[in-house]
């Protein structure tokens, strides 16, 4: 085999494995208060929160895609709670954090959202041993987020009739993140000055098209060999 073929054959697998290790980041990064009932209070049914795309770009290690695999919440109290059924949907929005035009429940100017976690038969029952733990309220799924397509929109829906009020970490709304919620108590867009802090676990990965091209290049090199 020619030396140039050997170099190409060795390089393709290395490129295919070029990802950043999965890491955890809390957004927004601003200071927080724990006295807050969003999004798991008994009076809140749906919350929309916008996260600035730049938060993810800064932590992708040069890769273009954030493969999100879990979202965690930090409680502000201790105790045992039944939140009922919790649904998480993710997608893109052209709405900026801090805007008065945050997407209200059930609407999004940038298109439909993708299901991240949804199981109506799964009731979230948790026992909290500490008020600052990110390991006690975790919802897992998969969503490939491309920051170049827009800001991240997180939709949280609490449907369970038995859900109880639970404090979660709150930060002041800013250019990083802000929220709106729909319920009998709060009107749409009422929360553009506050934001729930969430811990995202994600891995930086190449764009799907890049992986496909690299895979084809690898096959071509093998056929030449």
Write the layout of secondary structure elements.
Elements: H1 3-16, E1 23-27, E2 32-33, E3 44-51, H2 53-57, E4 65-73, E5 79-82, E6 86-93, E7 114-117, E8 125-128, E9 138-145, E10 151-158, E11 170-172, E12 177-183, E13 194-196, E14 198-205, H3 208-224
Antiparallel strand pairs: 1-14, 2-11, 3-10, 3-12, 4-9, 4-14, 5-8, 6-7, 6-10, 11-13
Helix pairs in contact: 1-3
Give a written overview of the molecule.
With 225 residues, this protein is of the alpha+beta class. It has 2 domains: 38 residues, no CATH class; 182 residues, Sandwich (Jelly Rolls), CATH 2.60.120. Helix content is 16%, strand content 36%. The strands form 4 sheets. A 5-stranded antiparallel beta sheet has the order 7-6-10-3-12. Strands 1-14-4-9 form a 4-stranded antiparallel beta sheet.
- Give the end-to-end Cα distance, rounded to a whole number of Å: 6 Å
Number of helices: 3
Structural class: alpha+beta
Kindly report the spatial arrangement of strands forming the biggest sheet. 7-6-10-3-12
Quote the average pLDDT: 78
Give the H and E element order: HEEEHEEEEEEEEEEEH
Inertia-based shape: globular
Number of strands: 14
What is the total domain count?
2
- Whole-angstrom Rg: 20 Å
Percent in helix: 10-25%
- The CATH level-2 architecture of the largest domain is identified as Sandwich
Largest sheet: 5 strands, antiparallel
Indicate the proportion of strand residues: 35-45%
Give a short synopsis of this structure.
By secondary structure, this protein is α+β, with helices and mostly antiparallel strands. The protein has helices at 3-16, 53-57, 208-224, and strands at residues 23-27, 32-33, 44-51, 65-73, 79-82, 86-93, 114-117, 125-128, 138-145, 151-158, 170-172, 177-183, 194-196, 198-205. It is globular and about 60 Å long.
